[in-house]
Amino acid sequence: MTVKETPVSAGGEKVVMTACNSHCGGTCLLKVHVKERRITRIETDDGEDPQFRACLRCRAYRQRVYAPDRLRSPLKRVGERGAGTFEPISWDEALDTVAKALVRIKQTYGQSSILLMYSAGDMGRLNTGDLFAKVFTRATGGYTAHWGWHSNGGGQYASLATYGTVLSANTRDDLLNSRLILLWGWNPTDSVHDTNTSWYLAQAREAGIKIVAVDPRYSASAATFAQQWIPIRPGTDAAMLIAMAYVIMDNNLQDQGFLDRCTVGVDQFKDYVLGKEDGIPKTPAWAESITGVPAAVTVALARDYAASKPAALVAGIAPGRTAYGEQFHRAAMTLAAMTGNIGVHGGNAAGTVWSGPSNQNFAKLGPTVGQRMKGGGNPLDVATPRQDSLPASDRFWKGWTSVGRINRFYVADAILKGKAGGYPVDLKLLYIVNQNCLNQLSNTNKIARALRELEFIVVHDQFMTPTAKFADIVLPSTMFLERIDVTAGGATPFYGYMNKVVEPPDGLMSHFQIAVELARRLGVPDYGEKTEDEWLREIVADSTRIPSYDTFKKQGAYKIRLPGPAISFEKQVSDPPNNPFPTPSGKIEIYSKQLADMKNPMLPPVPKYIETWESRNDPLAAKYPLQLITTHCKRRAHSQFENIPWLREIETQAITMNSADACARDIRDGDKVRIFNDRGEMVIPAIVSERIMPGVVDIPQGAWYDPDEKGVDRGGCVNVLSRDMVSPGEAFPSNTCLVQVEMARPS
Ligand SMILES: Nc1nc2c(c(=O)[nH]1)N[C@H]1C(S)=C(S)[C@@H](COP(=O)(O)OP(=O)(O)OC[C@H]3O[C@@H](n4cnc5c(=O)[nH]c(N)nc54)[C@H](O)[C@@H]3O)O[C@H]1N2
Ligand SMILES: Nc1nc2c(c(=O)[nH]1)N[C@H]1C(S)=C(S)[C@@H](COP(=O)(O)OP(=O)(O)OC[C@H]3O[C@@H](n4cnc5c(=O)[nH]c(N)nc54)[C@H](O)[C@@H]3O)O[C@H]1N2
Ligand SMILES: [Mo]
Fold first, then answer.
1. Residue nearest ligand 1's atom 39 by CA
2. Which pTM value belongs to this model?
């Protein structure tokens, strides 16, 4: 389906169609008005359904492009690391310095001392951090690569273990076929998962479909769409799901036909649930003491979920960003299987609801340009298989994610301890693209200590972020509105062409152009073998769905018209003998022999509730009694947009706490409070509210680290509090953290 074109010229103003695919995963269609080579305003899709209407961040993008604090020239550090004192230098000097540093570090310490780290700035297929992988491989003979997913490592692990694939989502319009929708730790009004999700939920609500939210917070999604809110203690969701399984088994409500036809291992799970294995029946009363959810509520929800066919248990990824969060995902998938809600319209596999939109089930763009560039694999990865600090699911991961020797969540620890501390390398040079790692990885104060130890740091960024402050050389990158790229939507299928709308300031380069220039200086002259446009043409040509590159480019979008809502595992469920699941047994694995063979009690073969570290029962709770969650807020995409005035007006960075917890501490709404634990301390205002359960506090992630002279963060960067420890099944536990809150002393 093509998009209606907008008249191009009205009063000297032209309108350029493009797509924003910032690091929220939205993928929105933009109509950018340009007059005299400047963006004057940004409108959005008003064409055929489904419309990809822009969110508030897209609409504010003009302020991001013209921000006064935008980096306009390469910078060289002149003061102490982290102090943020730099002087502008030319591109030639900057790139020569970076090239020389890479060569020097390689010659002095070996190429494994070079660590390349990237995440996502915008989620196109061209301007990605992996552009530098082959530059380094070809120029220095390899580098140390990282692995580890922030978003839903636990969900991906669980989906691979249970279904043999991470592609386990449905298109969002299928929610309208449900009779009951469970928003389980899912708040898509704020933390966007595909542009249209809220639109489908609004339609579901209007159609009278029952919606229940299970969340420690009465989130905007709960308030807008749900008829019932079930507050639950963070990190305990697996216990509630397992107790729901108990109710279903105890009352014989399971879909036995589905279980027999499509799954293996429900009997082993039953032994655990009913207590045959460990003497503890996982009853709703057992769960109540863990989750804080009254047993009767769990019973009612279990009965409702089993009876309302079809029902969609949408397992958000936030409950999985907890210690042992992978068990939450395995338990949710098992419950979906027990009720026969997999592979049927209106059901939901409780799969990976958000696994990065650019390469999801329904819209695929194939390998990135970085992966397509000339050059083989990184010899260091081939020579050294991934060094898991944990015996996690190597087999499941093969062919799915990058290999690498360092889990990104242990980078600070690896820098500080090196080979002497059991890591495979001594790191000396860090090259960072599209990532604000100091701010966004756990234990910011420790990362700051580690970055001070390195010999050389390169950061590509658009602003002087907390991470960029630690760089030796900062390379300013263009914004997506100043270059070309392509992207794809996820659960609402859509391809976006990211047209160049305006020229970048002062000869700023895209990541692609920087990679080519750096490669040339490092003796890899053929790196830019194709132009940016030629690469995008190649990517689009690979995608059989997009008929014409030129039309796609002109229209900024190509919407995919599917015959109807699309669901995962339809064939596997309707005709199992001819369509096995890609698991060893060919079935949905409630019991996984692969996991059993690992013999790791923390990665059990059936889903189990395992109490998190820093839970309410941890002795540490005597000192730090509040459970901190760190949600994604609507005015930022992670740390991006933090400095945009229009968006800052929407909400201040604050800690939300229940009035009971506030009263006990004599804290009133708006008071400045001190939040602390052994890892760090910050001072920000409090929001006192009934919209969060007692004992739980929320600080939205992404605000910029801004320590004062005593090291107290005044910016509200939540990772000064979080612990740098990954779950055995690879969940990034950013919602597992104990803190204390008290009134801030006047400073
Ligand atoms: N605006 C905006 N949108 C974004 C992003 C962004 O930064 N800003 N980031 C994007 C990215 S990369 C990602 S990974 C996703 C993240 O998306 P999510 O992980 O879904 O977002 P969160 O806001 O962290 O959490 C969703 C809900 O889960 C609840 N929750 C937290 N802990 C628990 C728990 O233990 N149990 C239960 N039941 N609920 C819990 C929170 O209160 C919240 O209401 O969002 C994407 N979309
Ligand atoms: N405590 C806690 N921590 C979290 C989370 C949490 O829920 N709680 N969420 C985690 C999750 S799910 C994620 S995905 C990570 C995200 O972590 P990051 O990916 O590190 O976060 P971003 O803020 O998106 O950082 C991208 C950086 O790249 C810069 N940049 C450089 N070049 C470009 C470009 O060309 N375009 C754009 N747009 N930007 C560019 C941006 O300015 C920005 O500084 O954070 C994780 N951290
Ligand atoms: Mo993420």
1. 185
2. 0.96
